[in-house]
Amino acid sequence: MRTLIVGAGALGGLIAARMESVEIPVHLATRDRKAAEVLLAQGLRVSGVGGSVSVRARYVAPIEDYEGQEKFDLVLLATKAPEALLVASRLMPLLVPGGTLLPIQNGAVPKILGDQLGGQVLGGLSNLGATMHAPGSYEQRNAGHLLIGELSGGLGDRVARIAGLLGRAIEIRTSAHFPGALWAKLIVNCAVTTVGAIAGSTMREFSRLASGREVFRQSYDEALRVALASGIRPERMLVEPIPPGWSPDDGRRSGDYDTLMDDLVAAYGDLKPSMLQDFERGRRTEIEYLNGYVARLGSQAGLRVAMNAAITDMVHLIEEGKKRPAPDRLADLLETAGRRV
Asked: pTM higher than 0.70 for the full model?
């Protein structure tokens, strides 16, 4: 299965290195020619969980070099969400008839691309924790996995084929109810990743603050209600996504969120939020496909999404340099959300 990985950042580079280490040839598409030349010269190196590997990068080129020249059975899209939505349409002509585009971005990106580009898009989510220390140098931070499944639900032959290929290099799981898995991950991103990024801390750190626990509860509860209003029940991933005792009819205070938060801290508590890394590097974040997406859908459905809207606005202020990540931002969020109707 001829495979192209688009994006040589933390996740794309890690997967490419793991595949090459088990002798699965992979083509890698970079943002520009200079980045390709660096990887061709020095190769790909991975440290951390799963063992260290060092491999030669055999096929690396800027994406435009592949256009009109190459055809692939699988294109794995591993850029950040904004770049993925910009480049995805250019990748479809690179697929053989019946080929598959597999996006693995955070948030609603797989669904958005499926709606735009049709059935050649397969759903993908990543629970792999990865950091790029320098071009070609990556660290795997956890024993995570990729989850794949049909965007419409169910399991087909192509899911099994792709899982069989990628599973030789990294852990792969499949879901017959991918929409529920997507929403489970999206809700956690909204209430864990973005909240930690705004606070400039890990989940374990912000969970010790009363303001952190309350921002978590409100953002999670809103996102959960939007998922259910969309007709999707979130799937169990690392934890059960519905808080014990929660009911959609009991208002915003129902459910044992303390137990849910403690379970999530056990799973994610010490991971540095990827969005915080974006802040530190001056990069555009994925907020519009996380809390921003929830806020838009919820507003359309007539649901209260004040906290997710406040989080979205705060992230944009940090992106613009008007605010800095800090624990005090959590109290700011509570104040702002409290003023919204």
From this structure: yes
